[in-house]
Amino acid sequence: MTRKDWDTYFMDIAYMASTRSQCGRRHVGAVLVQGKKLLGTAYNGAPMGVPDCSEAGCMLVEEFELVNADGGEQVVKKQRCIRTIHAEQNLLLFTDREDREGSVVYVTDQPCWTCANMLANSGIAEIVYHRPYPKDAAKVRGLMDSRGMRFRMLEQYEPPAGTLTEVHN
């Protein structure tokens, strides 16, 4: 057996963290790494002590966004659950700013616009993700470029057996 590279090792841990999620739509895990030292893990879910989506159902809201597409403006409808705190948000809530300075976040899914904004302002230097999130991809990429943050997808990565990788939108 060959030794795993660091990207694979830390993304595997993010996927294992995602197995704690009770979200029926998307299991997301995130880890904070400084150098090669693991500083924290998180997953998406309801606030502590509050029934999660598997117990109380999703709290879905619809949003509409005006986007430029094919030379014109187009209205795009997006649906999201507001019961769930995203893995990236939980990671920021439970780690120290000092530890985040210059660190890397490994996250199973490309961050949404809100999480990308929070990560861009958190001291993190790089975001590594596996699954794309097309709804916000262009905006998030633009934000990362304008902030000068490294932002990359692990395209050839294979998640560990036993982790839920299906996404339901």
TrEMBL record:
<feature type="binding site">
    <location>
        <position position="86"/>
    </location>
    <ligand>
        <name>Zn(2+)</name>
    </ligand>
</feature>
<feature type="active site" description="Proton donor">
    <location>
        <position position="88"/>
    </location>
</feature>
<feature type="domain" description="CMP/dCMP-type deaminase">
    <location>
        <begin position="5"/>
        <end position="154"/>
    </location>
</feature>
<dbReference type="InterPro" id="IPR035105">
    <property type="entry name" value="Deoxycytidylate_deaminase_dom"/>
</dbReference>
<dbReference type="GO" id="GO:0004132">
    <property type="term" value="F:dCMP deaminase activity"/>
</dbReference>
<protein>
    <submittedName>
        <fullName>CMP/dCMP deaminase, zinc-binding protein</fullName>
    </submittedName>
</protein>
<feature type="binding site">
    <location>
        <position position="115"/>
    </location>
    <ligand>
        <name>Zn(2+)</name>
    </ligand>
</feature>
<keyword id="KW-0862">Zinc</keyword>
<keyword id="KW-0378">Hydrolase</keyword>
<dbReference type="GO" id="GO:0006220">
    <property type="term" value="P:pyrimidine nucleotide metabolic process"/>
</dbReference>
<comment type="similarity">
    <text>Belongs to the cytidine and deoxycytidylate deaminase family.</text>
</comment>
<feature type="binding site">
    <location>
        <position position="112"/>
    </location>
    <ligand>
        <name>Zn(2+)</name>
    </ligand>
</feature>
<keyword id="KW-0479">Metal-binding</keyword>
<dbReference type="InterPro" id="IPR002125">
    <property type="entry name" value="CMP_dCMP_dom"/>
</dbReference>
<dbReference type="Pfam" id="PF00383">
    <property type="entry name" value="dCMP_cyt_deam_1"/>
</dbReference>
<dbReference type="GO" id="GO:0005737">
    <property type="term" value="C:cytoplasm"/>
</dbReference>
<dbReference type="InterPro" id="IPR016193">
    <property type="entry name" value="Cytidine_deaminase-like"/>
</dbReference>
<dbReference type="GO" id="GO:0008270">
    <property type="term" value="F:zinc ion binding"/>
</dbReference>
<dbReference type="InterPro" id="IPR015517">
    <property type="entry name" value="dCMP_deaminase-rel"/>
</dbReference>
<dbReference type="InterPro" id="IPR016192">
    <property type="entry name" value="APOBEC/CMP_deaminase_Zn-bd"/>
</dbReference>
<dbReference type="InterPro" id="IPR016473">
    <property type="entry name" value="dCMP_deaminase"/>
</dbReference>
